Amino acid sequence: MIFSGFFFFLLLCVGAGIWASNRGRFGVGWFFISIIVSPVIAFILLAVMKDLSKDAAESVSGGQTNRAPAPPPGPVDDDYAVALEEATSGQRKAGIWAKAFTDAVGDKDRTVALYTARRAQDLADERNRRAADELRQTEEGRALLAQQAYDALPKGTCPNCGTVIPLDSPICPQPKCGASFDAPDGWRIKPLAT
């Protein structure tokens, strides 16, 4: 009977440590706190304390937890119009025309359609490159491009505190956590489910 009571007490302490870890706190520390104080008091304290895991996820993603980087804009109507004009006027790009002709197996109408689609995409890519170059000229633009590059990195969660971080992070950036992922047999970042 005493053994089962002690086992239940230990199980509650482990539960407090796991819940603390899921709320962005140091789980092992909360396990020992619950042994010293009481698991019931530890659960009450955790319930009234702020959930740090949500704050960490918002700070990593810039306040938007499920934001995905926006894809660059594709071709617009004007791009297709310019590309079609090139295809029909003879002012076309030789490489793109040859590829379209090959893919169309000599069918003229299909060649024009393939050329128009490919050239319109090239025009959109050129416009996007120019826009990115203009953004790089300003401090705000550089910050935006850096944020977009960070958002595009594959992410995971720290197994110690639950913070969302890039998969290639050597340590957890949370000051209260500081978990290291460099050791060969140490912690590993858990990839986010896609």
Keyword list:
194 residues; mainly alpha; 3 domains; elongated
Sequence of secondary-structure elements: HHHHHHHHEEE
User: Please, what is the average pLDDT?
Assistant: 81
Return the domain count: 3
Tally of helical segments: 8
N-to-C span = 46 Å
Helix/sheet category: mainly alpha
Q: Enumerate the spans where pLDDT stays under 50 for 5 or more consecutive residues.
A: 61-66
Shape: elongated
The neighbouring-strand order within the major sheet is 2-1-3
The radius of gyration computed from the alpha-carbon positions, rounded to a whole number of angstroms, is: 28 Å
Main beta-sheet strand count, sense and barrel state: 3 strands, antiparallel
> Portion of residues in helices?
55-70%
Approximate strand percentage: under 5%
| Number of strand segments | 3
What does this structure look like?
The structure is a single chain. The protein is mainly alpha-helical. It has 3 domains: 48 residues, no CATH class; 72 residues, no CATH class; 41 residues, no CATH class. 60% of the residues lie in helices and 4% in strands. It has 8 helices and 3 strands. Strands 2-1-3 form a 3-stranded antiparallel beta sheet. α1 packs parallel to α3. The longest helix is centred in the middle third of the chain and has 29 residues. It is elongated and about 90 Å long. The two termini are 46 Å apart. About 3% of the residues have low confidence.
